Amino acid sequence: MVPGIIRYFCTLAFLQMTFAQIILVWYASNKRNLPWRGTRNPYYIWLSEIILQQTRVVQGTPYYLKFIAAFPTVYDLANASEERVLKLWQGLGYYSRARNLHAAAKTVVGTYDGTFPETFEGLLKLKGVGDYTASAIASICFDLPEPVVDGNVYRVLARYFGVELPINSTEGVKYFKDLAREVMDPDSIRNYNQGIMEFGAVQCTPKNPNCMYCPLNDSCVALQKGKVQELPIKINKTKVRRRHFNYLSFRDADGKTLLKQRTGKGIWQHLWEFPLLESKQAIDEDAVIKKLDDFVDAKKVREIIRYNERPIIHKLSHQHLYTVFWIVKTDEVLQNSIRLSEVEKYPVPVLIAEFLQVLLKKPETDHQ
Questions:
Q1: What DSSP line would sit under 244-266, residue for residue?
Q2: pLDDT of the residue at 362
Q3: Same domain assignment for residues 252 and 328
Q4: Are the C-beta atoms of 193 and 135 separated by less than 8 Å?
Q5: How far apart are CA 252 and CA 323, in angstroms?
Q6: Are 22 and 116 in the same domain?
Q7: What is the pLDDT of residues 73-108, one digit of tens each?
Q8: What are the TM regions of this chain, as residue ranges (predicted)?
Q9: Number of structural domains in the chain
Q10: How many CA atoms lie less than 13 Å away from 61 in the CB half-sphere?
Q11: At 147, is the pLDDT very low, low, confident or very high (cuts 50, 70, 90)?
């Protein structure tokens, strides 16, 4: 009986050891050629990690290259205007990341003389840097034995070890962090951390992973138990809020329009948009007319055109926006108005950027 127990724990230790080795071997042969892979510069690694939070690599890479070109150093980013940072970020979503990025750059320059902290604890003090990002920078740039746990890592560990704890529960977060530390290779932490994240992104994908050709398939618990598609488990805590947005795209007597900057702590903070009429449900032209006095002199409005017949559904993490654009032509000369073509210079939500992209392709007579 005792030899069997010893054999069990020896086998478990062997599997945990070879898990990291297999990840490292796989990574050496399968890693993608990404622009931040060949550097230890913490500015570049930090920038890539912030951009890739909740963003796929194929979408985030062009933004990374744009930011590096616009802001080659952390000093350049710190000294830029927030409006310029937000404009470059336009289309990536989760704009708080961009504001935190800018704030953290200012901290690195103002508090640390342009040098990133070289400890996990020091990195955590930067705005927008949490456990995962601090671990990534610490391990990739400074070889500190800090395990990374992002969505890809959760998936790999949950499937391979058959962990059914919810990844977004308090117990689950702690368990996976401890497990990640236990199975990591501290002597090759830079490549190991990048390897397990890459493995989750390329091999152990969320849907339909190619388990037949997976180097871990002999000992993957989820594969053996037929639970690959069930793991990892995540508790659905968020109730999606449904909102109705009506954007009023004005055209005044000079052919100009109005933009307003969003304030407060809601979505798209500090971005610019057309005057917004939010309603509890879908509204018609008569309802829009009744609210025009809140924005312009309703008596001088000569035409209202509903631009899109069906609402555009824009899905955010916690809310779905049902959006209609209304073109409102007025004989009034609006104060603080700008030319429609100038709207593209402002950081705007992607919803408005896409509307403008279509609208500006039309002849000027169609939208003035």
A1: EEEEEEEE-TTSEE--EE--SSS
A2: 56
A3: yes
A4: yes
A5: 22
A6: yes
A7: 999 999 999 999 999 999 888 899 999 999 999 999
A8: 6-27
A9: 2
A10: 9
A11: very high
DSSP state of 240: P
Q: Are residues 144 and 249 in the same domain?
A: no
User: 89, 95 in Cβ contact below 8 A?
Assistant: yes
DSSP H helical ranges for the chain: 2-30, 42-51, 57-70, 74-79, 82-89, 96-112, 120-124, 131-142, 151-161, 170-183, 189-202, 221-225, 285-291, 350-359, 364-367
Q: Which positions are catalytic?
A: 49
Q: Which domain holds residue 315?
A: 241-367
Cut 0.85: pTM above it:
no
3-state secondary structure (DSSP) of residue 242:
strand
Q: Tell me the mean pLDDT in the region 268-278.
A: 92
Phi then psi dihedrals of residue 59, to 5 deg: -85, -40
How many CB atoms lie under 10 A from the CB of residue 14? 11
Q: Which of 329, 307, 363 is nearest to 251 (CA)?
A: 329
Distance CA 199, CA 207 (A): 14
Alpha-carbon gap, residue 284 to 246, rounded angstroms: 10
Summary mean pLDDT of the chain: 90
Pairing state between β 312-315 and 319-330: antiparallel
Q: What is the pLDDT of residue 298?
A: 87
> Do the beta carbons of residue 269 and residue 95 sit within 8 Å?
yes
Q: Are residues 326 and 268 in the same domain?
A: yes
Tokens encoding 360: 């500006």
Calculate ∠ Cα 222-224-229, nearest 5°.
35
Q: Are 318 and 327 in contact (CB under 8 A)?
A: no
- Whether residues 246 and 168 share a domain: the answer is no
Same domain, 257 and 316: yes
User: Beta strand pairing status for 256-257 and 260-261?
Assistant: unpaired
CA separation for the pair 317, 168 (Å, rounded): 15
